[in-house]
Amino acid sequence: MEKLMIEGGHRLKGTVQVSGAKNSAVALIPAAILADSTVTIEQLPNISDVRILSELLKEIGGDVSFENNTLTVDPSEMIDMPLPNGRVKKLRASYYLMGAMLGRFKQAVIGLPGGCNLGPRPIDQHIKGFEALGAKVTNEQGAIYLRAKELRGARIYLDVVSVGATINIMLAAVKAKGRTIIENAAKEPEIIDVATLLSSMGAKIKGAGTDVIRIEGVDTLHGCRHSIIPDRIEAGTYMVIAAAMGDRVLIDNVIPQHVESLTAKLREMGITIDTYDEQIAVSRQIGSFKNADIKTLVYPGFPTDLQQPLTSLLTQAKGTSIVTDTIYGSRFKHIDELRRMGAEVKVEGRSSIVSGPNRLQGAKVKATDLRAGASLVAAGLMANGITEIMGLEHIDRGYSQLVEKLQGIGAKIWREDLGVEEREDAKVGD
Ligand SMILES: CC(=O)N[C@H]1[C@@H](OP(=O)(O)OP(=O)(O)OC[C@H]2O[C@@H](n3ccc(=O)[nH]c3=O)[C@H](O)[C@@H]2O)O[C@H](CO)[C@@H](O)[C@@H]1O
Ligand SMILES: C=C(OP(=O)(O)O)C(=O)O
Asked: Are 2-19+230-429 and 22-227 equal in CATH topology?
């Protein structure tokens, strides 16, 4: 077990290469189950969520290899093996095995997912969708059992705009008989990416990226080759870090439109941002920048996944900022840790209220979830002295080569083994 060490206060300069999108990857990989021949996915991020899902596909009989960020899956020998426990609990996106296995085998048993603890994360809309397609769904001892004689297309109106439910219903519906219409669908870029892969496999999908998705079921899906979109949340995290500490940091392999809500907010604060076709340059003129209020919304609104990293930047802004999370009202576990570093932040209901500017001091802190980890990394880079971040396993779920990428732009950051006492503490915290 390791911890992350950061010596803060160093200015950053150079180019950061963004990896493939975690939230696409974790849906594209299960989607391969639906094909009858080899699916190749290129430019995947080398993160633990991807490695765990690859192992899960092996567990159900897939012939899987993951080398040089390219995953090859031959799904032809897969079976409908129950997965009630084990690896499925280590990540959120194992719920996509439900839609994909239901679509292929007409049945599946999948343990309720893990992932970031952001307060309640129900999957009722996924289940509503599966049931509308004709599946019987039960929860038996923490695992979801799905069974269908056949899947028939249906009109499904989502009560809540949900990324996971939209993708899961697409996965279950592409091989159902007849037409499925998903209304009030989520519009995140990752949904378009999954629809692109499925279409390359022979699926008939229209409207991905709008709030009405139409699917005509087909009997078979074939293998294909697909290249994933860049990770807009990883790109956004580096933009925030560059805004705090960057002389000029070029973020390469990004679709600027995907991070527009962040770009607009940073410009409002007085940060200089230049956008190019696939790159964004972020520079901060020496001196203070302005406070800003943030409200997270579904895409194309400000992403909840960037709320936590941005809060660290707001500790350096002049004035009071209010960060309201309308998606996950209790996504504020990073605040206690930021306070340990000297930040003046309080939480009221669904909002955190940040007073700045406030010089942060290095401290021993713990990442409680993935983006809490990102916010602590950002804070550590801004702080005076050394910051030690525990809970690295959360960060490793979503940031490929974090240490190397930050070292590449001049950050003093490294991994260290935990001491005996720290190992014991980490076990107690599990
Ligand atoms: C693997 C993945 O892609 N994770 C992302 C995905 O999570 P995930 O797909 O789990 O998030 P959703 O879009 O489903 O959740 C949005 C909101 O809907 C609620 N909800 C969701 C489903 C449901 O059946 N019932 C329900 O009430 C949730 O509690 C939440 O308040 O989108 C989130 C919101 O952009 C991001 O933070 C996560 O990084
Ligand atoms: C919440 C996140 O991930 P997950 O849904 O996989 O837990 C995230 O990526 O910020």
From this structure: yes
Bridge-based pairing state of the strands 39-42 and 225-227: parallel
**Who lines ligand 2 at CB under 6 A?**
22, 91-93, 115-116, 305, 370-371, 398
Cross-strand partners of 212? 183
Question: Half-sphere exposure (CA, 13 Å, Cβ side) for 239?
Answer: 32
Distance CA 389, CA 430 (A): 15
Q: Rounded CA gap, 425 and 385, in Å?
A: 23
Nearest to 254 by CA among 284, 282, 283: 282
**Tokens representing residue 199 in the block:** 């279409």
Angle separating helix axes 22-31 and 48-59, nearest 10 degrees: 10
Average pLDDT score over the chain: 96
The domain segmentation of the chain, as residue ranges, is: 2-19+230-429, 22-227
Residues of the chain with pLDDT under 70: 285-286, 428-430
Q: What is the pLDDT of residues 193-251, one digit of tens each?
A: 999 999 999 999 999 999 999 999 999 999 999 999 999 999 999 999 999 998 999 99
What pLDDT is attached to residue 428? 62
Q: Would you identify the CATH topology of the domain 22-227?
A: UDP-n-acetylglucosamine1-carboxyvinyl-transferase; Chain (3.65.10)
**Beta strand spans in 314-401 (E):** 317-325, 344-348, 351-356, 364-366, 386-390
Q: What is the ipTM of this complex?
A: 0.99
Is residue 349 within 8 Å of residue 326, measured between CB atoms?
no
Q: What is the pLDDT of residues 92-149, one digit of tens each?
A: 999 999 999 999 999 999 999 887 788 889 999 999 999 999 999 999 998 999 999 9
- Rg (C-alpha) for the chain, rounded Å, is 21
Q: Does domain 2-19+230-429 have CATH number 3.30.40.10?
A: no
Q: How far apart are CA 266 and CA 290, in angstroms?
A: 9
Structural contact between residues 392 and 373, judged by C-beta atoms closer than 8 angstroms? yes
Ligand 1 site-directed mutation target among 162, 297, 304, most atoms within 8 Å of CB = 162
- For the Cβ of 305 lying below 6 angstroms from any atom of ligand 1, the answer is yes
Catalytic (active-site) positions: 116
b/e code 44-75 from CB counts within 10 Å (16+ = b): bbebbbbbbbbebbebbebebebeebebbbbb
